[in-house]
Design a protein that fits this description.
mainly alpha; two-stranded antiparallel ribbon; DUF1977_DnaJ-like; DJB14 protein; transmembrane helix; DnaJ_subfamily_B/C
Length: about 230
């Protein structure tokens, strides 16, 4: 209907006929040059996509392309249709390029992240045995007595000062893990005691009091060693 209205208003002859008759039906089926138009004279000369482009894309109708409408075959200009398709392909190409430009910062960040991961080497030790990296040989730090695991070539590569640096990193990682685990244990115990008080559940209170708190005990041992050293 929008296309038909546009066809009447954009054609001076059809618009004059509509002003005289006041009927779109008579205007659309009015004989032209003594011959009756078997197709609808007001068949849309513009597609909904072309109308959208006119208002939002700044483009004008690209051709009189008709599909099947109301059971009747439409009229088309092949050359104009091909030109319209070509222009739309160029528009899609420009849109894809602009999208790549917008995504470029994200692509760069991902690339830098992957590159940094490749450049950073794995530590020569592990706090737990790792068969995948061959770190299964058990060792112990000289200062705090922390257990860690290395591969078979570790003793040949790390000696003296380099070994002391490695063991210092081992102890720092170990203490950090123990501190985090102790915080979790305390939080869990606090939550249980609070729930026992709210719900007056003696079982929750006993469960909280019976928690072993192994990580917190280990943290106390390490703290005493630090103070003693």
């Amino acid at each position: 209907e929008i296309g038909n209205a546009y066809a009447v208003l954009s054609n001076p002859e059809k618009r004059k006929q509509y002003d005289l008759t006041g009927s779109e039906e008579q205007t659309c089926n009015h004989p032209s040059n003594g011959r009756f138009n078997f197709h609808r004279g007001c068949e849309a000369d513009i597609t909904p996509e072309d109308l959208f482009n006119m208002f939002f894309g700044g483009a004008f109708p690209t051709g009189s392309v008709h599909s099947f409408s109301n059971g009747r075959a439409g009229y088309s200009h092949p050359n104009q249709h091909r030109q319209s398709g070509h222009e739309r392909e160029e528009e899609r190409g420009d849109g894809g390029f602009s999208m790549v430009i917008q995504l470029m910062p994200i692509i760069v960040l991902i690339f830098v992240s992957l590159l940094s991961q490749l450049m950073v080497s794995n530590p020569p030790y592990a706090l737990y045995p790792r068969s995948s990296t061959g770190q299964t040989i058990k060792m112990q730090t000289e200062n705090l007595g922390v257990i860690y695991y290395v591969n078979k070539d570790f003793r040949n590569e790390y000696k003296g000062v380099s070994l002391q640096k490695v063991e210092k990193s081992v102890e720092e990682d170990y203490v950090s893990n123990i501190r985090n685990n102790c915080w979790k244990e305390r939080q869990q115990k606090t939550d249980l005691l609070y729930a026992a008080k709210v719900y007056r559940d003696d079982r929750l209170r006993k469960k909280a009091e019976s928690m072993s708190m192994e990580n917190c005990k280990e943290l106390e041992r390490l703290t005493s060693l630090y103070r003693g050293g």
